[in-house]
């Protein structure tokens, strides 16, 4: 027989709370503490504009969506099916591109996502700040199916390339002392992830919480990075190890 009160993560517990109405849970998930007018405008944009394809859709969304955000500079390009959660805690610089079905999720009282000028976020990629802060500096290029998520902080420096299927910022669940399973344990927070400018993070790479990557470094495809990568180093493997250095004339 299934338990009526299974072990679950704090997020699961919060958004499956039977003591709250489905409406209040959805509103909290979508716009946080935003007022009713903001919620109604969010619903209007989602219902009427999120699905519109082609140049017409891009044009309508570039006109209607900016007022959803905490701040949005000129010329945003927002694709079809983009999901925004708590957009008042998200800021966009000039010329930001969000491809179809990408997700920006700023959840929690202290959550924030700051995206600077001319950042590109690929199709089906997710940037999630769950009570933490994510900063993507100018010119960052995030490939398709990437997940960038934190409960503390992630900063990615100027003109860094994140290839497809990379996973940045995951932490570990702590084993609790009271015998509860891992799913119900607190997350182990190690201070976030910092990636410098002009880096290249290869396809399928994983960078866990607490990692720093110096300017101009390269992380090979499918590498597992759990310790510091110094500026100009090339690392690869599981766990990632130094296999070379970026040539001096190419390092930035």
Structural features, described:
The protein is of the alpha/beta class. The protein has one domain (20-171, 185-245): Hexapeptide repeat proteins (UDP N-Acetylglucosamine Acyltransferase, domain 1), CATH 2.160.10. It contains four helices and 25 strands. A nine-stranded mixed sheet has the order 2-5-8-11-14-19-22-24-25. It has a seven-stranded parallel sheet with strand order 1-4-7-10-13-18-21, with no helix packed on it. A hairpin with a 4-residue loop joins strand 24 (233-236) and strand 25. The chain is flat. The N and C termini lie far apart (60 Å).
Tell me the distance between the termini.
60 Å
CATH level 4 superfamily? Hexapeptide repeat proteins
How large is the count of helical segments? 4
CATH architectural arrangement: 3 Solenoid
Strand order of the largest sheet: 2-5-8-11-14-19-22-24-25
Please count the beta strands (DSSP E, at least 2 residues each): 25
Structural class, please?
Answer: alpha/beta
The radius of gyration computed from the alpha-carbon positions, rounded to a whole number of angstroms, is 19 Å
Biggest sheet character: 9 strands, mixed
CATH fold field value? UDP N-Acetylglucosamine Acyltransferase, domain 1
Segments where pLDDT lies below 50 for 5+ residues?
A: none
CATH class: Mainly Beta
What general outline do the C-alpha atoms trace?
flat
User: In what range is the share of β-strand residues?
Assistant: 25-35%
Q: What number of structural domains do the residues give? A: 1
- Element string (H = helix, E = strand): HHHHEEEEEEEEEEEEEEEEEEEEEEEEE
Helix content: 10-25%
């Amino acid at each position: 027989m299934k338990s009526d009160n299974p072990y679950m993560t704090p997020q699961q517990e919060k958004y499956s709370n039977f003591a709250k109405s489905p409406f209040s849970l959805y509103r909290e998930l979508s716009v946080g503490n935003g007022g009713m007018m903001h919620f109604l405008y969010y619903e209007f944009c989602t219902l009427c504009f999120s699905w519109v394809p082609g140049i017409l859709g891009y044009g309508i969304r570039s006109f209607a969506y900016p007022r959803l955000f905490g701040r949005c500079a000129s010329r945003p390009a927002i694709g079809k099916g983009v999901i925004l959660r708590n957009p008042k805690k998200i800021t966009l610089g000039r010329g930001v591109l969000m491809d179809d079905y990408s997700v920006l999720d700023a959840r929690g009282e202290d959550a924030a996502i700051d995206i600077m000028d001319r950042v590109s976020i690929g199709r089906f990629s997710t940037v999630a700040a769950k009570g933490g802060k994510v900063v993507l500096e100018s010119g960052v290029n995030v490939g398709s199916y990437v997940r960038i998520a934190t409960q503390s902080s992630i900063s990615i420096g100027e003109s860094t390339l994140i290839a497809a299927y990379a996973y940045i910022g995951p932490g570990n669940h702590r084993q609790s002392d009271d015998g509860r399973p891992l799913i119900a344990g607190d997350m182990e927070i190690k201070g976030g992830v910092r990636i410098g400018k002009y880096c290249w993070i290869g396809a399928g790479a994983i960078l866990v919480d607490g990692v720093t990557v110096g300017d101009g470094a390269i992380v090979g495809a499918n590498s597992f990075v759990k310790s510091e990568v110094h500026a100009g180093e090339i690392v690869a493997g599981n766990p990632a190890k130094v296999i070379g250095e970026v040539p001096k004339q190419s390092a930035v």
